[in-house]
Amino acid sequence: MLKHLDLKYFKCFKFLRLPLQPLTLLSGTNSSGKSSILQALVLLQQTMREHEWSMRLMLNGESIKLGAVSDVVDQVHGRHSFEIGIVDADRTYQWIFTGDRTDISFSIDRVIVGGEIFEEPKSLRFLMPTTAASENIDFANRLVKLTYLTAERIGPREIYAFEDRQTSKGVGPAGEHAVSVLNWGKDEPVLPGLEISGVPKTRLHQIQERMRIFFPGFTLVLHQIPHTNAITLGMRTSADTEFHRPANVGFGLTQIFPIVVAALSAAEKDILLIENPAVHLHPMGQVMMGRFLAEVANSGIQVIMETHSDHVLNGIRRAVKQEIIEPDKVAIHFFKPHSKEAAQVESLQVDRAGNIDFWPDGFFDQFDKDLNYFAGWGD
Predict the structure, then answer these.
(1) What is the per-residue pLDDT for 372?
(2) Which range, of 30-34, 58-62, 92-96, averages the lowest pLDDT?
(3) 313 — pLDDT class (breaks 50, 70, 90)
(4) What pTM does this model have?
(5) pLDDT at 204
(6) Are residues 217 and 138 located together in one domain of the fold?
(7) Domain limits at 238?
(8) Are residues 252 and 289 in the same domain?
(9) Predicted confidence band of residue 342 (pLDDT cuts 50, 70, 90)
(10) What is the mean pLDDT of residues 278-288?
(11) CA torsion sign, 194 to 175 to 22 to 317?
């Protein structure tokens, strides 16, 4: 499991050391750095997956496109370099990247693996010196397999591409491969900790049952169009109706579908990064999403999410109180715009009763502020 993420001169961070847990929630104001946490990990994953033997960190690829060096290095404190450090279990990995401000990739100035320093390495595999790559292959493989789902997930489609297993290993940053992933793995079992009892243990049945928690009566059917590399996805939310095209069953349904597919297709120790998991969901559905992701994390999959939803937070708190997940497996971080007077990130704790130890100003407190305003207690 990833235990810490360290950033220096990356985006809006002069220096950040962020503790991670099986379930990590990132919250806070807009443009405060939440997405940058996910992007730092995705930059590593993107380069490792698309350019296994690359000697440079690629800023633009299939998962994210961050532009040039000047767009990535902290413009207040950094100049031409930034650093990423990860503590995985008890082993530390650190990269120092450098580049001219107009470059669209970074050279790798130094790599530190388990305390061993490699200056200007001449040969790399998975962004690690080849002499150290084999003994760290488990860590590299987990980063390569990392799933990243952005907030801009694809909407309903008439048809979906029917892709090769090699292409559709993951659901894709916009969920574009979710139908292919489900189609190839529909007869595979889900992790024991995520099984819903009374339902066949295969992914197709388990995913369908999970979706019914959010949308009662939900049923899906996959149909490969003959003589084409395309699949149609039929959905319905009532046994009394025929199957509908995705465009006719509600936008929220297609937005959470890739999350459920990704989670139930994951293996133990996999890493799942999600932006705004509750987009287009009713408040009750947002609570259920928080609870679901707590179950996912407790099953052995590491989940790091960014959210603006207090309902998702409350779903996690309820999961803790219901003993679905232990409180020490949950990390909650509140991000604020950079300031000389206050810490940029505040870390909060949840106890066994689901209570938060303290509520910083701006941390999911807008509802209370609005109530006070209408009661005449505030401005």
Answers:
(1) 66
(2) 30-34
(3) very high
(4) 0.93
(5) 93
(6) no
(7) 152-266
(8) no
(9) low
(10) 91
(11) negative
Tokens of 368: 């209370």
| Three-state secondary structure string covering the chain | CEEEEEEEEECCEEEEEEECCCEEEEEECCCCCHHHHHHHHHHHHHHHHHCCCCCEEECECCCCECCCHHHHECCCCCCCEEEEEEEECCEEEEEEEECCCCCCEEEEEEEEECCEEEECCCCEECCEEHHHHHHHHHHHHHHHHCEEECCCCCCCCCCEECCCCCCCCCCCCCCCCHHHHHHHHCCCECCHHHCCCCCCCEHHHHHHHHHHHHCCCCEEEEEECCCCCEEEEEEECCCCCCCECHHHCCHHHHHHHHHHHHHHHCCCCCEEEEECCCCCCCHHHHHHHHHHHHHHHHCCCEEEEECCCHHHHHHHHHHHHCCCCCHHHEEEEEECCCCCCCCCEEEECECCCCCECCCCCCCCCHHHHHHHHHCCCCC
**123 shares its domain with 14:** yes
- Give the pLDDT of residue 378: 60
- Residues 58 and 96 reside in one and the same domain: yes
Angstrom distance (rounded) from CA 108 to CA 124: 10
Both tokens of 337, joined, read 């715009």
Rounded Cα–Cα distance for residues 186 and 182 (Å) = 5
Please check the confidence at residue 339 and state whether its pLDDT lies above 70: no
User: What pLDDT is attached to residue 224?
Assistant: 86
Residues in the chain: 379
Taking alpha carbons only, the member of 66, 88, 17, 1 closest to residue 304 is 1
Tokens 């939440």 appear where?
34
Domain final position from 205, 238, 266: 266
Look at residue 188 in the predicted model and tell me its pLDDT: 95
Query: Sorting pLDDT into bands at 50, 70 and 90, what band is 236?
Result: confident
> For the residues 255-261, what does the mean pLDDT come to?
94
Task: Tell the residue number behind the tokens 């189609």, with chain if given.
Answer: 183
**One domain, residues 329 and 257:** no
Q: What is the CATH number of the domain that holds 82?
A: 3.40.50
- Report d(CA 168, CA 178) in Å as an integer: 8
Phi, psi dihedral angles at 38 (to 5 degrees): -65, -40
Distances (CA, A) of 81 to 17, 67, 167, 303: 18, 15, 33, 29
Q: Is the pLDDT of residue 46 over 60?
A: yes
CA distance 39 to 35: 6
